[in-house]
Amino acid sequence: MKPQYFLIVIGTITLYFLFELFSPYLKAMIVALLLAVATNSFGTYITAKIPSKFISSFIMTIFLTFVFFIPLLYCLFSFATLINNIDQQALAKMLTKFESWVALLPNDFVIVKEHLMEFIEKINIKELIQNLLSFGANLGKNSAKFILDMVLILVFYFFFNFYSTQLSTYLKSVLPLKREDASALFFESSNVMSVVLYSILATAILEGFLFGIFISFFDYDGILLGVLYGFASLIPVIGGLIMWLPIALYEGFTVSSANALIIALYSIIIISIVADTFIKPVIIKYINLRVVKTKANINELLIFFSIIAGLSTFGFWGMIIGPAMVTFFISIVQLLKKFSTDAQNDDINNLKKTI
User: How confident is residue 97, by pLDDT bands cut at 50, 70 and 90?
Assistant: First the structure.
């Protein structure tokens, strides 16, 4: 057996056992690595201001914790508290009022009226409460694992940033590509993922802030609903509707129709039209030109489907893994396009020399 074949066999066996050894931590490592790549431009900026790699990596980890993970933990614990304090009588009262509203619908909507009445008849308040309590118990049971995953991601994220220079230099040296091509691949991947991550965060923070501040005037938990609206805003077209419509309906059936109308108008005009249609493109343009320096156009529907696919395949952390995989593929395609263009230019230059 040739030495290289022997090394390949030994390397394959070793790789298998390494996979088994680190399999409990692989998802956390992958998420942390993708976040480190996506925030590379921000890391470069921090490192330029603070030469100490340890301090700059620590600042980035703290920033990620407060921007992304603290809101998630707040939602987790708020949901558990909310589910355990559900008012059964309030739900029954709301259902009765909704049934009365359906009964008053004109005969022109007889088909809709019949379907709504059938839906109401199938609702069992006690069974609904039991299902919610069961969901709350499962949420509490899984929260410990979720928190552990968060801690591991933050730890790995810190070390990926701290050793980013050494890791990127080593990977570029082992890749079967020219050094400039390997650098281009890393740059394109980081650039596209940065645009996606920063755009998602900026949109979620802007729309979540606008909704949270507004809804707090109606005695709701503005922080919780603002964070939830931010995550819902990742879904194109219907994202905000998922949040404000149930609240507007609840206000309409339990408090007043005026409150419901105000919530609906604010959500549609201020958030959906002004923020999403006019302010959001300006933010993305600023990110493209000032933050990552190189323009990257990513279709919103592509990001949406990659988030949905990631969630269904990898669980919650698929929200990060899905878009990252898609953007990495786009980066490879862009690099292949560059190779194709360079090859054509070389052929043209060679042809000119022969002539």
Answer: confident
pTM, to two decimals: 0.72
* Residue 286 reports pLDDT greater than 70: yes
Q: How far is CA 330 from CA 69, 297, 349, 351, in A?
A: 27, 10, 29, 31
Residue 32 CA, chain-centre distance (Å), reads 14
Q: Which of 269, 273, 205 is nearest to 234 (CA)?
A: 205
Q: Which of 145, 279, 292, 284 is nearest to 201 (CA)?
A: 284
Closest listed residue to residue 330, CA positions, set 189, 172, 200: 189
Tokens, residue 78: 């708020």
Residue 43 clears pLDDT 60, i.e. is over it = yes
How far does Cα 176 stand from its chain's mean position? 32
Across 20-41, b (16+ Cβ under 10 Å) vs e yields: eeeeeeebbbbbbbbbbbbbbb
Residue 202 has pLDDT above 60, yes or no: yes
Taking the C-alpha atoms of residue 216 and residue 231, their distance in angstroms, rounded to an integer, is 18
Task: State how far the Cα of 29 lies from the Cα of 11, in Å rounded to an integer.
Answer: 21
Q: Is 177 left (phi over 0), alpha (psi -120 to 50) or beta?
A: beta
Report the C-alpha gap between 253 and 95 in whole angstroms. 9
Give the distance from CA 169 to its chain's centroid. 29
**CA 70 – CA 72 distance, rounded (Å):** 5
Residues 176, 180, 182, 183, Cα dihedral to 10°: 160
Cα separation, 91 vs 128, in Å, equals 10
Cα–Cα distance measured from residue 46 to residue 40, given in angstroms and rounded to the nearest whole number:
10
Return the structure tokens found at 52: 């100490």
Average pLDDT, the chain: 76
- Between these two residues, 119 and 208, which has the higher pLDDT value? 208
Tokens of 121: 């008849």
CB-facing half-sphere around the CA of 290: CA atoms within 13 A:
8
